[in-house]
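Example 454.
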Amino acid sequence: MAPLHSERLIGLLGAHAVRSGEALSSVDAGFDPANLDAGLAVLPRTTQEVADVLGYCSAHGLSVVPQGGRTGLSGAARSAHGQLIMMMQGMAQIVAIDAVSHTAIVEAGCTLQTLEEAVRQHGLTCGIDLGARGTATIGGMIATNAGGQEAFRFGPMRQRIVGLEIVLPDGRVLGDLTQVIKANGGYDIKQLFIGSEGTLGIVTRACLRLSPYEAPGTTALVSLVDLNSGIRLFRRLEALSHGRLLRAELMSGNHVSLSARDHGADALAEFGEQGDCAIFEFTDQAVLEAELGLAFEEGLISDALLCKNEKERDAVWKIREDWAVDRAFPHGLWFDLSVPLAGMGTYIDALHARLHAHDPAVQLFYIGHLGDGNLHITVNKPAPMTAHYKAISALVYEELTALGGFFSAEHGIGLEKREALAEQSDPVKLALMRDIKRLIDPSGIMNPGKVLQP
Ligand SMILES: Cc1cc2nc3c(=O)[nH]c(=O)nc-3n(C[C@H](O)[C@H](O)[C@H](O)COP(=O)(O)OP(=O)(O)OC[C@H]3O[C@@H](n4cnc5c(N)ncnc54)[C@H](O)[C@@H]3O)c2cc1C
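Predicted structure in complex with flavin-adenine dinucleotide:
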């Protein structure tokens, strides 16, 4: 069957746009080694080509896995034999940047970094940033409703999207590429596609909202006396009128020590030995310095480093963005949670206690976007942990809903969290999700098995 599809797809798009065999195995599979398992991929260059392919797939019951940069962390881009991968890197044009209206129209395969560099020429920013910026695409970020380091200021991807163009599974093109933020036209259908992880259609173009760019004046690494002190300091920095807080990231002390030592940055590792740490970026160096001095006197922080140059700044961010902990514990269990800031200290203390009571040998690491309460937790042990997933996840999710938190923050559901979605969601919401999936994708060809369990 596959050679037949391959020949027909070559007929539709040309041989240059269809890959299989060696031509495909030389492609970087990205975060999940199984992403390319389908063995057959198309690289459309226009919305019409996407529509032609989906029309073909729909008519022949061929299921499609959309892929952007393949940096997704929950298995949503994984493919299997008998499926077709739709790679979006052939649609990577920046169509227009409107520096007066503060919008950009861009094709889905454009990477975040490419778009950010282009809009910076106009003194603007996309208002969203994440570690995978060089590879993650705008389409993939829309499909996962990505969040990242600036979400406490600008919201996640959903809040950056003004308009979308989408190809539906039957090949129809849904044109909603509005360029204004106020556009009330009944049901806002495009919202369904943001965060749908490729299960409803293919995003081909998007209109993004831009904001004035502010250079990071100063970056500081601080050791917090405890998590609640860090949250108090965050709120205080956020409220200052002389200068602006641009980033606020949290790291558990053991994450800082392990990651810094991995990079040979022993002096930075000592920050982690004192406890949880935060990175703050603020526009005005003098104001940040004065505030950290006050925080020290008041007993909110025990140490602080103000980066003197780019090299020091890079070293601090490397501790946050590198994956040293996951290299050290390749079999750990990952969670991506949202916790209201008011309950975050209590939640972490209680989780430590629950995990210790369950198994004193497990270690809890976390990093997070402090400003919006997003915690990336890993529960590690120098041994495979997969068999313990059910027991550990029950401990991680315990009391989360009661605190007002959510089991899934910014990485999406994909394959990894389908069970948790089924367990944690309101049954009415789940039933509506299934109805919507059936309505938009009646033949079930769009990224089947992702988000919703079959
Ligand atoms: C180092 C690193 C740091 C990260 N940091 C963050 C972070 O801070 N915040 C955060 O939110 N995420 C983060 N991520 C996760 C990841 O970068 C995001 O999920 C990103 O949005 C995925 O984009 P992508 O282009 O790689 O999509 P892919 O991984 O290729 O695909 C992800 C999902 O989107 C679908 N998809 C892709 N393109 C389209 C399209 N055009 N139309 C419809 N569906 C499509 C796929 O089918 C899949 O379901 C990080 C990942 C890494 C590796």
